[in-house]
Amino acid sequence: MIARPIDPRAWLLWAAAATVPPLVGRNPFVLLATTLAVLGVWAAWRDAATDGWGRLLRLGALFALVGVLFNTLTAHVGDRPFARLPDAWPLVGGPLTVNALVYGLLSGLAVFGLLLVGTTLGATLDWATLLRLLPDRLHAVAVTGAVAWALVPQTLRAFGEIREAQEARGHRLRSPADAGPLLVPLLAGSLERSQTLAEALEARGFGAALAPQAALGRWRGAATAAGLTLATVGAYGLAMGSPAFAFGGLGFGVGALWAAGRERGGGPRRTCYREPAWDRRAWLVAGSAGVVLGVEVAILAVQPAAFAYDPYPSMLPPAVSLPLLAALGLLLVPAAIR
User: Fold this and answer.
1) Does residue 267 lie in a domain region?
2) Residue 180 structural domain
3) What gap in Å lies between CA 152 and CA 154, rounded to an integer?
4) pTM: predicted TM-score of the whole model, two decimal places
């Protein structure tokens, strides 16, 4: 049974709270708590329509394992060696340490957690409602992003169908040279779907200006560019573990984007026949995510070591923040109200 969708604004706030821990640190307790909570939400909300996202998740887990192996073989640093490869071997020659293995596992868990948040958001978000909530001036960007996001599971499903059809014909994937019968039909089908979609959008006048005055003003274009740049810089600062720099950039970026979209011009207008309902479930998801974000920001300000962990050069016990771990449990609220 497919559950009634929750307001996309609540989902976006939940995703923001879930992505902070894997972006700002490598504390194993925090990463594990966040990943388990998001995995619980994914398991509760996935249905038959999310098979494509499930394939993407398995592919991401495979790449995370490759990253763990690469870090273990190439990072010859740490005080706990468990094996040694011949020094004459390029890149991988030298001691293999538990430190490198642990850091690779934590990095792989962080990448998998981010991918899990993205797949959960992609599978549960009501894109049509989200498009109606965005300002008119961001409608073209929103449609483009939604189309690109929706093509991901479609491509993965198409790949699965092509693989099954080729296996029925006796094809077996034994080496990279055998990938041709899989990739060529996938590329041809993707181009055909893209062309059909482009023709449908063009037939509906997507992207066309209604009047010469519908073009964005010069100052509004500059404000939009500045807002996007500052938001990107803020997100980078968050990933690098600089909370003051990150939240400053994100705040100014959001402010610039808000100012750019404040003035209405002669651009296209959309007809909305029914406003999205902000119901009790949306309040629960948004409220719990807001509490998690508040706790994360407070702990980043007063105790940033609660998120951080570095097994180099010596492995020491990671810090444990019980308030943070308890707050991360609130990320399971969407699974409880499924």
Assistant:
1) no
2) 8-205+232-262+275-336
3) 5
4) 0.73
CB atoms within 10 A of CB 265: 13
What lies within 8 Å, CB to CB, of 242 at 6+ separation is none
> Is the distance from CB of 234 to CB of 248 less than 8 angstroms?
yes
Residue predicted with more confidence, 40 or 156:
40
The DSSP output letter for 216 is P
- Asked whether residue 226 is assigned to any structural domain, the reply reads no
Q: Is residue 224 part of a domain?
A: no
Query: What is the domain count for the chain?
Result: 1
Distances (CA, A) of 13 to 32, 93, 174, 271, 285: 20, 46, 44, 26, 8
The confidence score (pLDDT) of residue 152 equals 72
* φ/ψ (deg, to 5) at 174: -110, -25
Distance CA 68, CA 147 (A): 33
CB atoms within 10 A of CB 212: 7
